[in-house]
Write a sequence for this structure.
């Protein structure tokens, strides 16, 4: 408790802000505007890089042991946050928000002398403010002895154990790619021949071609966007998060409704040589005898909480 | 107790003594699963009893200025102190049992239905002793070590050449400033970063991380493993958020094994999916 007392001194109930706090706030402000890390953050990262302070890692003990055996040392936890207001476009805002957060995460990792960030999770906090959201990435910066320190650390959404498996198979997770697309549809009805606004419904079962094409187009564009974003970083992408929403927007009694479709795809970018393949291990087929929860048949939840793909209970 | 014949006489006596105190008949209690129990034993430890610490805490009231990003020190301190009290009481129970440490610690916070200002903090874990009485596994200042790692992870950690010291944590309750109406109007129809909100999250997270790290430094740890950093709100106003970082501080075992002897895991594929 002693350090806590030192930090707080005498705590008053009033919302007074001390000069030190003001100084801190000013440094954060200039960081967000000019991309220069605050002095106290930089000091923490440098101390971690030099080994003067304990390393901090999200790794499990098994991962820690294996990482050590492979010459990978944990340095510290790094993060990137961008609270983004999507007044113009929700969909593109998500792309912009994540890309900014990614750049900030990399900046912290580079300051910590790391050449990779593992176990990167996409997070958001439960606080809804208008048309905005916080885009947060948190991960463990590591130093891989076999690789030179650089200003462009690899960003892997997989935990250390999976990272090692991939690297041993000559597959390097390098980054995060985002594909996003939205569009509006004002149905013409003449093309489809069917009133998809629900006022007249045919009795026959039939596809809705106009709406179907519209929705398919959005998904395809999002995937093209993902492809382009991935191309800048590596030569493959494993898309793990897909979020598609199709809204019907009523326009009053006199006008037919419009439709808004939006789709976001996010994936881990990998870089791999096409020539070799396979992993340097035998795989044993086993029968898992457990009836219910088994890590073999029930993979653990990913820890991303930014999109409601897998809802999970978080804080204690 | 089929292993009993391998254990030196003085250790057996010690174990018996431990079991006598509060555990008549030499019965231990533990919330271990079967696999956890097996692996803790394989690691050379014996469970002696469940250790519990609990703290029901009344949180004071503190409001942030409406348009100011700031830490709510009263709440930060309260959240920290309540957890620390629960942990300390758990550790005291472990000490009285003569445990070398506590594994599988669960630290929980519960709201109570009837008062929004009262929170229940609880720490529970299984006290263990080294089966052969090795004295080198204590935590800082000769106290029992604490760790939120499961029995399986405990075994793995020892095999990776580390031992747990103590659970370290950092808490920061933060008020995220509201945005003025003029500022909001300026953003209508634009895609822009809301820097004051970004700033609030950065500041709060950094404070929580710094505090956890300071605890690790005090514990003389080499590192902190299994860190969990998360955000929560406990019946507070919507703009008040707690960032909480927790992990297990570890230090290398003095006879550190070479990294090359850490065995490769085997890959298996479950065929009964």
């Amino acid at each position: 408790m002693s350090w806590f007392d030192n930090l707080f001194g005498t705590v008053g109930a009033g919302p007074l802000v001390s000069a030190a706090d003001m100084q801190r706030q000013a440094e954060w402000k200039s960081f967000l505007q000019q991309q220069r890390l605050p002095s106290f953050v930089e000091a923490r990262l440098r101390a971690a890089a030099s080994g003067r302070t304990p390393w901090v890692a999200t790794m499990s003990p098994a991962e820690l042991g294996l990482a050590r055996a492979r010459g990978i040392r944990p340095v510290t936890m790094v993060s990137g946050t961008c609270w983004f207001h999507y007044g113009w476009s929700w969909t593109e805002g998500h792309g912009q928000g994540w890309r900014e957060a990614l750049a900030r995460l990399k900046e912290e990792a580079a300051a910590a002398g790391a050449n990779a960030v593992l176990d990167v999770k996409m997070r958001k906090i439960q606080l809804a403010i208008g048309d905005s959201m916080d885009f947060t990435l948190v991960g463990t910066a590591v130093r891989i002895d076999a690789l030179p320190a650089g200003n462009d650390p690899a960003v892997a959404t997989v935990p250390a154990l999976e990272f090692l498996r991939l690297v041993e198979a000559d597959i390097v997770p390098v980054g995060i790619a985002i594909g996003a697309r939205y569009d509006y549809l004002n149905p013409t009805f003449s093309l489809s021949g069917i009133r998809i606004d629900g006022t007249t419904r045919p009795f026959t079962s039939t596809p809705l071609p106009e709406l179907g094409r519209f929705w398919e187009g959005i998904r395809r564009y999002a995937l093209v966007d993902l492809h382009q974003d991935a191309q800048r970083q590596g030569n493959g992408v494993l898309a793990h998060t897909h979020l598609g929403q199709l809204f019907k927007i009523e326009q009053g009694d006199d006008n037919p409704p419009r439709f808004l479709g939006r789709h976001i795809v996010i994936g881990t970018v990998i870089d791999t040589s096409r020539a070799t393949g396979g992993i340097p291990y035998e795989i044993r087929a086993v029968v898992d005898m457990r009836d219910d929860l088994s890590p073999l048949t029930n993979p653990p939840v990913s820890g991303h909480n930014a999109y409601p793909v897998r809802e999970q209970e978080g804080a204690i | 107790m089929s292993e009993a014949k391998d254990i030196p006489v003085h250790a057996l006596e010690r174990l018996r003594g431990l079991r006598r105190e509060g555990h008549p008949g030499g019965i231990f209690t533990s919330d271990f699963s079967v696999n956890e129990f097996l692996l803790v034993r394989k690691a050379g430890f014996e469970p002696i009893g469940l250790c519990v610490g609990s703290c029901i805490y009344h949180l004071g009231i503190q409001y942030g200025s409406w348009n100011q990003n700031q830490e709510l020190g009263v709440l930060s301190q309260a959240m920290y102190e309540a957890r620390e009290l629960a942990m300390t009481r758990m550790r005291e129970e472990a000490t009285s049992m003569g445990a070398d440490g506590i594994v599988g610690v669960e630290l929980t916070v519960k709201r109570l239905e009837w008062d929004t200002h009262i929170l229940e903090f609880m720490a529970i874990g299984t006290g263990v002793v080294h089966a052969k009485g090795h004295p080198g596994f204590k935590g800082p200042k000769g106290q029992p070590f604490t760790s939120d790692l499961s029995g399986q992870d405990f075994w793995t950690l020892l095999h990776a050449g580390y031992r747990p010291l103590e659970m370290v944590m950092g808490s920061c309750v933060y008020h995220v400033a509201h945005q003025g109406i003029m500022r909001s109007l300026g953003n209508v129809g634009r895609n822009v970063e809301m820097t004051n909100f970004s700033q609030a999250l950065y500041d709060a997270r950094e404070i929580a991380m710094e505090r956890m790290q300071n605890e690790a430094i005090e514990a003389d740890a080499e590192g902190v493993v299994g860190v969990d950093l998360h955000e929560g709100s406990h019946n507070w106003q919507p703009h008040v958020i707690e960032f909480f970082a927790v992990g297990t501080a570890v230090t290398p075992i003095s006879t550190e094994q070479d990294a090359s002897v850490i065995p490769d895991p085997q890959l298996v594929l479950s065929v009964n999916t």
